[in-house]
């Protein structure tokens, strides 16, 4: 099945049309891959850290006598801080740029992990989790925004989807294995400290590589920095992020032809008003349901399995097998982003997620069924989250894209902090069936809310920036217009 053609940016300004056309001709080069690798290294360790409370929960209960409520609070404070981190990063990212926030957030993340590793009492662990959450939340929000802005429409969905292949897929799948490895090598009541400490070390190494990530050309152009945008485009076209550029080109020439360039006003209140406000509301509600379901399972599954009589090691190994569904779900979403409209993917995945939740709650009576339905549930929830990550930055113009994206993801973080409390209470009172019935109901609500934002599949971000109406133009997004590039043609190097 071939990708559908990309619409031209007829309503965008000349310089934005030139930008989109240039990115489309450049395609995906070695420079794109280098940027992606550096961004993905950070979000991978974010994913491991996101699982940390679930991994150390049973060990903390053994060594400190930590209650289930206290473990739940650690999760809540982590994701509440993540929401604050995303909001702060979104505001600064739209004002000062995307790239600087990558280093800041990763530094905070590493600092928080070290605080947890050396914490003498529970309250210090809670402080460390707040710092971790603040950096973790900002890291994901800015990564999603940056990856969406470096690519043309036909590659954008897959590029953003790769983030959750790394985080929600590989990160979530390998996190239990990481816990098993740490708890096998290190013994004693304080072995959980090693888990936190080891999470900080590789994240610090990524700081070196972040120096090579450039600012996105879309952001530079939105701020009127045409020369800087041309420089980044030359880097992307050459496939090299460093070194002297021989015979650089002027890709954006509209200014020389007489177009007046004025930095776009990034009024943050725009994301709460009119059509953008309706998009924020509907996607915010959807992501609350998706994130709430995901984090509930991540946080509670090892504890649920231990309560059913399995050892800590077996519980983590079972969780690892179930998380294989996360990797497959992220890969499926990233692939579907190139061929299938976003709202179709979200609706189908929500329906399958609801079915898998009920199956796990009422039919998972043996180890094979636990693993099967658990993997299916994780497949659906990560497919939903990945597609929401792809869909969200496409809804906002460049001037407020980081803030709009951060708002949506911040709401998800808040839901990730609060929903496990409800899910845990449902488990305590009604067992596994009650907990997964609650999660299945969340998927039903998600399927309804994702119908309201406009379809963005096959449309350039510059076109979306000039179309802030709520008319669903799904059919238009799949039509071919004059001057449209054929997405099936071989990508050309810009020379």
Task: Describe this protein's structure.
- With 495 residues, the protein is mainly alpha-helical.
- Helix content is 73%, strand content 0%.
- It has 17 helices and no strands.
- It has helices at 14-26, 30-50, 52-64, 68-96, 99-117, 122-149, 153-185, 191-210, 217-222, 226-238, 274-307, 312-336, 342-363, 367-391, 401-449, 461-466, 474-477.
- Helix 2 (30-50) packs parallel to helix 5 and helix 12 (312-336) crosses helix 14.
- The longest helix has 49 residues, at 401-449.
- It is globular.
- The model is unreliable at 1-11 and 469-495 (pLDDT under 50).
How would you concisely characterize the structure shown here?
This protein has 495 residues and is mostly helical.
Rg is: 22 Å
State the helix count: 17
Largest sheet: none
**Low-pLDDT segments:** 1-11, 469-495
Distance between the termini: 30 Å
Mean pLDDT: 83
DSSP strand (E) fraction? Answer: under 5%
User: Any idea what the shape is?
Assistant: globular
The sequence of SSEs as H and E is HHHHHHHHHHHHHHHHH
Q: What is the share of helical residues?
A: over 70%
Number of strands: 0
Q: Kindly name the structural category.
A: mainly alpha
């Amino acid at each position: 099945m071939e990708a559908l053609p990309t619409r031209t940016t007829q309503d965008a300004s000349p310089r934005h049309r030139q930008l989109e056309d240039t990115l489309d001709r450049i395609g995906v080069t070695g420079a794109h891959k280098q940027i992606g690798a550096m961004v993905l290294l950070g979000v991978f360790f974010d994913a491991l850290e996101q699982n940390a409370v679930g991994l150390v929960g049973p060990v903390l209960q053994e060594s400190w006598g930590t209650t289930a409520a206290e473990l739940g609070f650690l999760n809540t404070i982590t994701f509440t801080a993540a929401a604050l981190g995303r909001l702060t990063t979104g505001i600064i990212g739209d004002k000062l740029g995307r790239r600087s926030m990558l280093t800041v957030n990763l530094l905070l993340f590493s600092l928080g992990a070290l605080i947890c590793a050396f914490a003498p009492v529970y309250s210090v662990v809670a402080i460390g989790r707040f710092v971790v959450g603040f950096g973790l939340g900002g890291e994901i929000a800015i990564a999603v925004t940056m990856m969406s802005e470096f690519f043309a429409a036909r590659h954008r969905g897959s590029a953003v989807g790769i983030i959750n292949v790394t985080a929600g897929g590989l990160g979530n799948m390998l996190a239990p294995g990481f816990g098993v490895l740490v708890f096998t090598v290190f013994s004693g009541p304080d072995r959980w400290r090693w888990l936190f400490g080891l999470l900080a070390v590789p994240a610090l190494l990524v700081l070196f590589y972040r120096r090579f990530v450039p600012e996105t050309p879309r952001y530079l152009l939105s701020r009127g920095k045409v020369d800087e945008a041309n420089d980044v485009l030359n880097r992307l076209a050459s496939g090299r992020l460093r070194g002297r550029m021989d015979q650089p080109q002027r890709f954006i020439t509209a200014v020389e032809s007489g177009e007046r360039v004025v930095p776009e006003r990034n009024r943050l209140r725009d994301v709460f008003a009119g059509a953008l406000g309706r998009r924020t509301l509907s996607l915010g509600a959807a992501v609350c349901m998706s994130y709430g379901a995901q984090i509930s399972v991540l946080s509670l599954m090892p504890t649920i399995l231990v309560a059913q009589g399995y050892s800590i090691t077996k519980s983590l190994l079972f969780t690892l097998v179930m998380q294989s569904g996360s990797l497959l779900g992220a890969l499926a979403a990233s692939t579907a982003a190139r061929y299938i409209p976003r709202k179709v993917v979200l609706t189908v995945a929500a329906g399958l997620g609801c079915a898998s939740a009920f199956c796990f709650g009422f039919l998972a009576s043996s180890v094979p069924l636990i693993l099967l339905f658990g993997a299916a549930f994780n497949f659906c929830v990560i497919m939903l989250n990945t597609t929401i990550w792809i869909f969200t930055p496409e809804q906002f113009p460049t001037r407020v894209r980081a803030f709009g994206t951060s708002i949506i993801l911040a709401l998800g973080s808040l839901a990730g902090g609060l929903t496990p409390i409800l899910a845990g209470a449902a488990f305590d009172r009604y067992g596994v069936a009650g907990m997964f019935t609650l999660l299945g109901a969340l998927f039903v609500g998600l399927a309804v809310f994702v119908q309201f934002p406009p379809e963005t599949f096959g449309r350039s971000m510059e076109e979306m920036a000039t179309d802030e109406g709520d008319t669903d133009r799904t059919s238009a997004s799949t039509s071919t217009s004059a001057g449209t590039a054929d997405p099936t043609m071989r990508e050309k190097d810009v020379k």
